[in-house]
């Protein structure tokens, strides 16, 4: 955050505990009650005292060019606060990478982001994942960002833009939850939006005035990320519509007969597609190009459903596609977004 020409760094002490927020959301390490109590009785007082103290220090030292956060604390508390600040930075970096991995995994499951290699590091906790490409990207991007600017003022401007963007997005998402899930009175929702979003927009317009001093990097990065997600979503939609239009008709399958006009070799063939009904066009390409096809064919479709838990008995839905002599089946694997595995692991489960 930047006010005029003075440098203000966020209070770092509460970050040791605010990091638990993302860990709770991603890995369920902490209970809801513990997070609520910590935020109300520890984080909020620390933030208020920290920011009010810095504001009071600025009012008394308008011409200071030092780092306000460390200049406003007593000299005897410098080293303890520096130690806590470094611990908070370590926790914040761990939280950021965990939250990024979780967002990428869920975006991939929803079809909003290109598929990446996701490694599940624990068999007990489903949320513990590692995305090598994203991890290396964060490393390179952070080093390039710090090396390019090298000024805490520019980094502070970028931080303020990112923080206000998160606050506005949180307000928008809470508004949607209030309308669709909690079903709160529309007038109360409007008051909530006008007050909080209006206040956040005022601050956001102020930080946009310093966009050329560091904030432009995050704005460009957000625009590039949005374009990647938009293009991938648009392309996935076109691909699905194409599969629906070009799927093979049942009349054609009946004309080919139970041998499908080719040689049926022993074994099981798994054909992954997005269709929940019908035979994909790619299967017709297999029939015309491959010298033989397996004796049992299973069309695998993985869907992610918006429910908290999918019972084990309802996770895999099997049904016959053609008459019994064809030995063709469809398997719909249903997963919650937070329960999804890599696609390769799903196919191995189905094959067994």
TrEMBL record:
Cell compartment(s), UniProt: Membrane
GO CC annotation, single: vacuolar membrane
Any GO molecular function: potassium ion transmembrane transporter activity
Residue stretches spanning the membrane: 27-53, 73-92, 129-152, 164-182, 187-207, 213-232
Topological relation to the membrane, as annotated: Multi-pass membrane protein
InterPro entries, sorted: K+_transporter, K_trans_C, K_trans_N
K+ potassium transporter C-terminal domain: residues covered: 266-335
Keyword terms: Ion transport, Membrane, Potassium, Potassium transport, Transmembrane, Transmembrane helix, Transport
Domain K+ potassium transporter integral membrane residues, every copy: 16-254
PANTHER family: OSMOTIC STRESS POTASSIUM TRANSPORTER, POTASSIUM TRANSPORTER 7
Family as reported in the entry's similarity comment: Belongs to the HAK/KUP transporter (TC 2.A.72.3) family.
Protein name per its UniProtKB record: Probable potassium transporter 14 isoform X1
């Amino acid at each position: 955050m930047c006010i005029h020409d003075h440098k203000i760094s966020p209070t770092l002490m509460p970050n040791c505990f605010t990091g638990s927020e993302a860990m709770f959301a991603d890995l369920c390490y902490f209970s809801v009650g513990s997070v609520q109590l910590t935020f109300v009785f520890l984080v909020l007082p620390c933030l208020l005292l920290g920011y009010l103290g810095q504001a009071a220090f600025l009012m008394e030292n308008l011409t200071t060019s030092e780092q306000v956060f460390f200049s406003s604390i007593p000299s005897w508390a410098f080293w303890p606060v520096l130690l806590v600040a470094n611990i908070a930075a370590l926790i914040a970096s761990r939280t950021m990478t965990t939250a990024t991995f979780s967002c990428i995994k869920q975006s991939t499951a929803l079809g909003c982001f290109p598929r990446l290699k996701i490694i599940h590091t624990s068999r007990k906790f489903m949320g513990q994942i590692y995305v090598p490409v994203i991890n290396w990207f964060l490393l390179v991007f952070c080093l390039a960002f710090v090396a390019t600017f090298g000024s805490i003022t520019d980094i502070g401007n970028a931080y303020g833009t990112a923080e206000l963007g998160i606050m506005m997005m949180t307000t928008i998402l809470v508004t949607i939850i209030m309308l669709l899930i909690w079903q709160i009175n529309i007038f109360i929702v409007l008051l909530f939006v006008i007050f909080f979003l209006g206040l956040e927009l005022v601050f956001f317009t102020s930080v946009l005035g310093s966009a050329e001093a560091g904030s432009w990097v995050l704005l460009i990065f957000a625009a590039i990320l949005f374009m990647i997600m938009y293009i991938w979503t648009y392309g996935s939609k076109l691909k699905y519509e194409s599969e629906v239009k070009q799927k093979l008709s049942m009349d054609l399958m009946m004309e080919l007969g139970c041998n499908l006009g080719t040689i049926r070799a022993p074994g099981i063939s798994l054909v992954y597609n997005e269709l929940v009904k019908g035979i994909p066009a790619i299967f017709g390409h297999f029939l015309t190009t491959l010298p033989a096809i397996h004796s049992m064919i299973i069309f695998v479709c993985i869907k992610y459903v918006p429910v908290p838990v999918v019972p084990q008995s309802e996770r895999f839905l099997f049904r016959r596609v053609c008459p019994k002599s064809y030995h063709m089946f469809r398997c719909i694997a249903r997963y919650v977004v937070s329960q999804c595995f890599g696609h390769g692991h799903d196919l191995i489960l189905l094959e067994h």
